Amino acid sequence: MSEDITNQNTPLVIDIRDELSFEYGHVDGAVNIPADKLKSCTDLPKDRKLLICCKSGLISVRVVDELRERGFDAENFEGGYYGWLRERMVSESIPEDAERSIQKKFRKDIWNRFTKAVNEYELIKPGDSIAVCISGGKDSMLLAKLMQMLNRHSKFPFEVKFLVMDPGYSPENREIIEKNAKRLEIPITIFESDIFDSVYNVEKNPCYLCARMRRGHLYAKAREMGCNKIALGHHYDDVIETILMGMLYGGQIQTMMPKLHSTNFEGMQLIRPLYLIREDDIKRWRDHNGLYFIQCACKFTDTCSACTDDRTVSKRLEIKRLIAKLKEVNPQVEFNIFRSVENVSLNQLIAYKDDSGRHSFLERFPD
Questions:
Q1: Contacts 24+ apart (CB under 8 A), 345-353
Q2: CATH 3.40.250.10 in the chain, residues?
Q3: Angle (CA) 197 199 201, round 5°
Q4: Sheet hosting strand 269-271, strand order edge to edge
Q5: Model-wide pTM > 0.90
Q6: Backbone φ/ψ region at 130: left (φ over 0), alpha (ψ -120 to 50), beta
Q7: What does the DSSP assignment read for 310-365?
């Protein structure tokens, strides 16, 4: 914690969610001290009121009680970050401002990289019908706006539909998604499923299972709507982090592909048009337009400090920190990680796998 915030007379808002959730969005002026680190934090001010904030104001109640036992003047931030966010939601539309910022201020970093990915990876073909899958977060909302703009100005015809699946959101979280879509004038289609109820009692990797099931439901609904592709909002940082996570935790070299054929839905493809856009630029666009998004609308994680499996959160945080540390020495490290899967030399690999199976270098090694 920095020294300047301990000397103010105003209450100190402490966000106890994980670092990834905090970076995604937080109460103005809040500082991030994850719940597991708060217990060992030694420089909390005892002469200042502490407002403890979590996702929905539920788990922070317990933390407040613990702090009071330690002699701190602590109170619960009622409603948590999502409650604060709902209060800040406004109804006026801002599509012109959002689009103008993409065309002008963020043209180089967002629009040009978006169109480069679409063209370089041949993500969109004439006659395509694409379901843009919207989770309610900053990435999928930007993707929806970009696809809407591209569809309007494209040199060839293709169709775009904006699809939101409600797998059991709380009414309050669903309202945030609907209001953001309305502000950006994105005509969403919402369909419901019971996925959250299906995975509620799953003890091992429920978030992973939920994600897999959501993907299948999105494919099915998109095909029902006459679409041949679904578009997801994964960006450049997701790609390079996935590369390193595969190497360090999975013992394999692979990447998040810009497009894929579905293995379970014949004729369907998945595309990732944000493939070349940096996450920091998405955040800058969000903040420039005064937009606030949610990271996870799951009603069951209202009682959790994070919105995903703790192991996944810690691994991705570790990878983010590793990349940031390497970047201090080599500013090109992110670019090099990305390019590493474009410059693979099969002749210099001990083994590799393809659709026909595993191949050893010994197959081409002379006797």
A1: none
A2: 3-88
A3: 90
A4: 188-192, 159-166, 129-133, 229-231, 269-271, 259-261
A5: no
A6: beta
A7: HHHHHHHHHHHHHHHHHHHH-TTHHHHHHHHTTS--GGG-SEEEETTEEEEGGGG-
The overall longest dimension of the chain from CA atoms, in Å, is 79
The domain defined by 3-88 folds into Oxidized Rhodanese; domain 1 (3.40.250)
DSSP labels, 274-296: TTT--HHHHHHHHHHTT----S-
Going residue by residue through the chain (367 aa), what tens digit of pLDDT does each one get? Answer: 444 454 557 899 999 998 888 888 889 899 999 998 998 888 899 899 999 999 889 889 999 999 999 999 999 999 999 889 888 776 677 889 999 999 999 999 999 999 999 999 999 999 999 999 999 899 999 999 999 999 999 999 999 999 999 887 878 888 889 999 999 999 999 998 876 666 566 656 656 666 777 788 899 999 999 999 999 999 999 999 999 999 999 999 999 999 999 999 999 999 999 999 999 999 999 999 988 887 765 555 544 444 444 455 578 889 999 999 999 999 999 999 999 999 999 889 999 999 899 999 998 887 6
Closest by CA position to 106, among listed 238, 280, 240: 280
Question: What token pair was written down for 331?
Answer: 């500013």
Report domain 95-298's class: alpha beta
Helix axes 171-183, 138-153, angle to 10 degrees: 30
How many Å apart are CA 139 and CA 24, to the nearest integer?
10
